[in-house]
Amino acid sequence: MTKPRVLVSDKLSETAVQIFSDRGIDVDFKPDLGKDKDALLAAIGDYDGLAIRSATKVTEKLIGAADRLKVIGRAGIGVDNVDIPAASRRGIIVMNTPFGNSITTAEHAISLMLAVARQIPAADTSTRAGKWEKSKFMGTEITGKRLGVIGCGNIGSIVATRAIGLKMHVLAFDPFLSDERARDLGVEKVELDELFTRSDFITLHTPLTDKTRNIIDAGAIAKMRDGVRIINCARGGLVSEADLAEALKSGKVAGAGIDVFETEPATENPLFDIPNVVCTPHLGASTAEAQENVALQVAEQMSDYLLRGAVSNAINMPSITAEEAPVLKPFVKLAEVLGSFVGQVAESAILEVEILYDGMTANLNTKALTSATLAGLIRPQVADVNMVSAPIMVKERGVIVSEVKRDKSGVFDGYIKLTVKSANQTRSVAGTVFADGKPRFIQIKGINLDAEIGRNMVYTTNNDAPGIIGILGTTFGSNGVNIANFQLGRNRPGGDAIALLYVDDPVPEHVLNKVREFPEILSAKPLVFDV
Ligand SMILES: NC(=O)C1=CN([C@@H]2O[C@H](COP(=O)(O)OP(=O)(O)OC[C@H]3O[C@@H](n4cnc5c(N)ncnc54)[C@H](O)[C@@H]3O)[C@@H](O)[C@H]2O)C=CC1
Ligand SMILES: O=C(O)C(=O)COP(=O)(O)O
């Protein structure tokens, strides 16, 4: 295996570089490259992995030039700077480090809240200027005040518990916050409008999505208490800067603590000229501790993926642990082969896919196996597809996918059965992995068999009549096609029958046509499997 190559294009701790090198990965540490779009575009084609923070914008254009890229690792939480659908379509895994900087960011939100409440930056500047303006900087106490937390996930809940420690009453709005979790945290769960109308301070901790963009705008501010203070340590774009600036000028909003901006780096901004606004340059995650955490974690995760196929904290792919990866590998192969079989024989548009996990296969990572099945299924139509891109591509095509799990029901410890409904037919194929670690077909069209899977195969459907073995054996043999393995099956004597032949080399079309001339042979298809 050639050594994977990783580019670090943002200011990550050098711990990341050390870890990549120690794990045997070639690493280029170019912390300023992320800011230079053109240089990054020119360089990206040489790398298998890209490690970033928020300064590198991973656009569709960049992904289009990333011919070798397999993984993007975000040393941090927010991945709104990565075009995830574009990465998924190209089969590139996007992973983040969901906990490494959350305490640090929560602490920054609390710091900004206190700094705004007591106008510490302005008081500092004034004092250093020799003004001693004691009465100008009258503050507000936070004890007993209501803090509204919008988004009560990792960071929001840390902020909430810290604020409770500071004797604040916390109101939380988060559509995914359960009553039980709210009780455990000691917060009052409320709807957004109630949070707006009752809070003295409001802090934002949601990701930036189409739903959360401008969650605080003029309309939201109008519902708030006069003199409310707003803290944004999550993402610029959650708060309309123009509307906030107006509300600060009118006095409706008494102060704001802003770490993140609609456009970053923010060198000019409508908020900069307004007093009672405390600004920091996206420092939420910037502590030595957090930066060590996220650098270490992202480098370990990316190395595990590039070297061992383990997937953790991926946004666009189910997790696969390093221990699980080798166990799962033959079943991933089996799943791909099952999908590939149907994908190669299907003649009309696929409408529905059902994957049945029987016995021990139901206890494996079926999400990953389903992704592999889908990749095999659509690879005959879209060559450049893998476990990351297959689910999104299948979804884009409107195909309904379902998974069924059940206890062991037959002679095998477990097997996978794929049933695919297309416009004019329903097809099914089942397989398992034998003790030798190799996948086998055990059923096709409901007909039992035990077929070894080779790279080149021929699949025929035929009438159950005498002489089929002779027809296939003689026609192939007289045309120089060597058969490695031959499997026959039928649903009942004289009924539907199939044959599956594992051949040494691809069978030329003119030889298949000769086979097709026999009236007993209903169809003959060449198949290729990546085994
Ligand atoms: N300033 C900085 O340097 C940093 C900023 N961040 C930002 O903080 C954000 C939150 O991080 P975590 O708490 O770790 O994420 P998380 O995923 O644990 O929590 C986000 C919460 O927001 C909730 N949410 C989603 N849509 C919502 C909506 N419409 N209204 C209310 N709640 C909604 C989710 O249910 C979830 O509980 C990140 O997405 C990132 O953008 C994160 C780290 C550092
Ligand atoms: O982790 C996040 O979401 C952050 O916003 C931190 O950003 P940064 O890594 O400091 O550029």
Describe what you observe in this structure:
With 531 residues, the chain is α/β, with parallel strands linked by helices. It folds into 4 domains: 5-100 and 289-317, NAD(P)-binding Rossmann-like Domain (Rossmann fold), CATH 3.40.50.720; 102-279, Rossmann fold (3-Layer(aba) Sandwich), CATH 3.40.50.720; 318-444, D-3-phosphoglycerate dehydrogenase, domain 3 (60s Ribosomal Protein L30, Chain: A, 2-Layer Sandwich), CATH 3.30.1330; 454-531, ACT domain (Alpha-Beta Plaits, 2-Layer Sandwich), CATH 3.30.70.260. The protein is 34% helix and 24% strand. The chain contains 17 helices and 22 strands. The chain has helices at 14-22, 37-43, 60-65, 84-89, 102-118, 120-128, 154-165, 179-185, 192-198, 218-223, 241-250, 288-308, 324-345, 366-378, 389-396, 468-478, 509-516; strands at 5-8, 26-29, 49-52, 71-74, 93-95, 146-150, 169-173, 188-189, 201-204, 228-232, 253-258, 277-279, 350-359, 400-406, 414-422, 425-433, 439-444, 447-452, 456-463, 483-490, 496-503, 521-528. The strands form 4 sheets. It has a 7-stranded parallel beta sheet, sandwiched between helices. β15 (414-422) and β16 (425-433) form a beta hairpin. The longest helix has 22 residues, at 324-345. The site of 1,4-dihydronicotinamide adenine dinucleotide has 32 residues, from α5 and α7.
